[in-house]
Write a structure and sequence with these properties.
Family: Belongs to the glycosyl hydrolase 13 family. GlgB subfamily.
Protein name: 1,4-alpha-glucan branching enzyme
Radius of gyration: 27 Å
EC number: 2.4.1.18
Enzyme class: transferase
Number of helices: 16
Helix content: 25-40%
Largest sheet: 8 strands, parallel, barrel
Organism: Felis catus
């Protein structure tokens, strides 16, 4: 991080008070003394977090009970066969339940008004004890607004919503199966080094259609396991009416997307992943919500507030979506219960929190360069209500399941985001290293190979806060989307359509593309963080971009698919990239560089285009020179003894030129080189 311009030091008395209030703040300030002028900010945040937690304890019986909102809100079958219903609609004049069960009579079942904007309804059981609202039947909450308008709404707590035929809006489908899925496998242990396969169920088939949970379970999970990934990050699971939003315009927060199948089939997917030792993370979107009112949260009670800020503050101008009011008691209940729901009901092992930058700041990151000056991370521009919510969410996740993983998608680089709450941090386990993919795209777009700056590459890959873990990635779904290009497409472009057959000679473009694709991934994996992420299909250089069906492409599914079969064709070069990705992951599993201390970079030679570093007892050597190879090249190391090649991007099975003899043994000598006590010739 850039050295910040310090604000005036806080007084010794104020600092002592902050250190007394925040149990391990001294550790944070020891790790980063530049944060000392901001000790009062950490004190205020921590005290506000504790105050909120204590208020929840006093008024709700603790966060454990508070986060079980889904057990009472929504619609629930009682033991006696009756139905209990509860909603929070502070702006409503009347609330009713209607549906198939009462022939859609809008007013025959009125809710009773409670304090604090809550409404409840109990419907006694039928005399014959049959289900009052059968599984699979349709329901609606009817709201009478203060202006007298009658609104048909889906409960914010709905567990399943479906869209039939050509209908534009989703319907609330009561989900209460007679035989719910029973989990067979325990959660896997927390990975030592997390290797994430970023996944989207709907595009996981080569066919031009929306793929299913079943398809993913039986066809994609085995591939992920074979590739050596120990974690999957599931995108677009929370229900979203607009498929092309990539799952980022949520309409029903407690509903697993029905376009892929049923809730029970998603549970089977998670359970099957667990049986393979794979951790499953949910891409959770609590940064904003869809503007839909017919089948979303917006205007639920007839007002523009309820779950969101009223007026301009409640709108995200860039995303055209609604923004939560994180200071609201019932919004906290809703969001924290949502976190718990996905952990408990579906067995997820943690979350990647989307849009954290937008949550952290009142400016939502729009128009901000984030230079690294620490003043950017403190003061009035910070939305401390949202920050406290994130602290509460992390506290809840790690209290319920200590081995859970939380990842923040934050582009700002906020200090202590991934520090423990006890230090005054926000409590995430990892942050995404979002500068890394931007650097690779910049190099490929703007620079000739001979102009690549080795020092700048190393700086980008190692520029992270000490003891705040990062997930490194060369590219994610962002780079695959239409309007951008994957690394493979930047490297090989149109030649991917004509020159990927092993029956044709290497062209210079394909040769360069295949070699750099492997090198970029390996150096990112080994040097860039404490975790690694890859978006599905990119590991083998998936051709073309990603584009969901929409009016602009005549609702085509042609680009909304993943052509995994390309790696199974022995006559195509995609298999080489797939093989390399698999062996790279399996070597990390064996050697554990992601969980090892940060690498020591002994060389970043601009003329030779060589980068060399050590991590986890391995020596990594990269030659980025477009035309030169080297013999007897001296590389520094701390390790005396014998070395052998364990991974070689130039090997034949990876589409390389086999220029290295893998039977060669290399011996280090006590010959100091590049600040290392030993060195070897390679």
């Amino acid at each position: 991080m850039a050295a910040p311009v310090a604000r005036g030091e806080c007084s010794e008395a104020a600092l002592a008070a902050a250190l007394a209030d925040v149990p391990e703040l001294a550790r944070l300030l020891e790790l980063d003394p530049y944060l000392k002028p901001f000790a009062l900010d950490f004190q205020r945040r921590y005290k506000k977090f504790n105050e909120t937690l204590n208020n929840i304890g006093e008024n709700e019986g603790g966060i454990d009970k508070f986060s079980r909102g889904y057990e009472s809100f929504g619609v629930h079958r009682c033991a006696d066969g009756g139905l209990y219903c509860k909603e929070w609609a502070p702006g409503a004049e009347g609330v009713f339940l209607t549906g198939d069960f009462n022939d859609w009579n809008p007013f025959s079942y009125p809710y009773k008004k409670l304090d604090y904007g809550k409404w409840e309804l109990y419907i006694p059981p039928k005399q014959n004890k049959s289900q009052l609202v059968p599984h699979g039947s349709k329901l609606k909450v009817v709201i009478r607004s203060k202006s007298g308008e009658i609104l048909y709404r889906i409960s914010p707590w709905a567990k399943y919503v479906t869209r039939e035929g050509e209908n534009v809006n989703y319907d609330w489908t009561h989900w209460d199966p007679e035989h719910p899925y029973k989990f067979k496998h325990s959660r896997p242990k927390k990975p030592r080094g997390v290797r994430i396969y970023e996944s989207h169920v709907g595009i996981s088939s080569y066919e031009g259609k929306i793929a299913s949970y079943k398809h993913f379970t039986y066809n994609v999970l085995p591939r992920i396991k074979d590739l050596g990934y120990n974690c999957i990050q599931m995108m677009a699971i929370m229900e979203h009416a607009y498929y092309a939003s990539f799952g980022y315009q949520i309409t029903s927060f407690f509903a697993a997307s029905s376009r892929y199948g049923t809730p029970e089939e998603l549970k089977e997917l998670v359970d099957t992943a667990h049986s393979m030792g794979i951790t499953v993370l949910l891409d959770v979107v609590h940064s904003h919500a869809s503007k839909n009112s017919e089948d979303g949260l917006n205007m639920f009670d007839g007002t523009d507030s309820c779950y969101f800020h009223s007026g301009p503050r409640g709108n995200h101008d860039l995303w055209d979506s609604r923004l939560f009011i994180y200071s609201s008691w019932e919004v906290l209940r809703f969001l924290l219960s949502n976190i718990r729901w996905w952990l408990e009901e579906y067995g997820f092992d943690g979350f990647r929190f989307d849009g954290v930058t937008s949550m952290l700041y009142h400016h939502h990151g729009m128009g901000q360069a984030f230079s690294g000056d620490y003043h950017e991370y403190f003061g009035l521009q910070v939305d401390e209500d949202a920050l406290i919510y994130l602290m509460l969410a992390n506290h809840l996740v790690h209290t319920l399941y200590p081995n859970s993983i939380t990842i923040a998608e934050d582009v700002s680089g906020m200090p202590a985001l991934c520090s423990p709450i006890s230090q005054g941090g926000v409590g995430f386990d990892y942050r995404l290293a979002m500068a890394i993919p931007d650097k690779w795209i910049q190099l490929l777009k703007e620079f000739k190979d001979e102009d690549w700056n080795m020092g700048n590459i190393v700086y980008t890959l190692t520029n992270r806060r000490y003891l705040e873990k990062c997930i490194a990635y060369a590219e994610s779904h962002d780079q695959a989307l239409v309007g951008d290009k994957t690394l493979a497409f930047w490297l090989m472009d149109a030649e991917m359509y004509t020159n990927m057959s092993v029956l044709t000679p290497f062209t210079p473009v394909i040769d360069r593309g295949i070699q750099l694709h492997k090198m970029i991934r390996l150096i990112t994996h080994a040097l860039g963080g404490e975790g690694y992420l890859n978006f599905m299909g990119n590991e083998f250089g998936h051709p073309e971009w990603l584009d969901f069906p929409r009016k602009g492409n005549n609702e085509s599914y042609h680009y909304a698919r993943r052509q995994f079969h390309l790696t199974d064709d022995d006559l195509l070069r995609y298999k080489f990239l797939n093989n390399f990705d698999r062996d790279m992951n399996k070597l990390e599993e064996r050697c554990g560089w992601l969980s090892a201390p940060q690498a020591f970079v002994s060389e970043k030679h601009e003329g030779n285009k060589i980068i060399a570093f050590e991590r986890a007892g391995l020596v990594f050597i990269f030659n980025f020179h477009p035309s030169k190879s080297y013999t007897d090249y001296r590389v520094g190391t701390t390790l005396p003894g014998k070395f052998r090649i364990v991974l070689d991007t130039d090997a034949a099975e990876y589409g390389g030129h086999q220029r290295l003899d893998h039977s060669t043994e290399f011996f280090s000598q006590p010959f100091k080189h590049n600040e290392r006590p030993c060195s070897l010739l390679v």
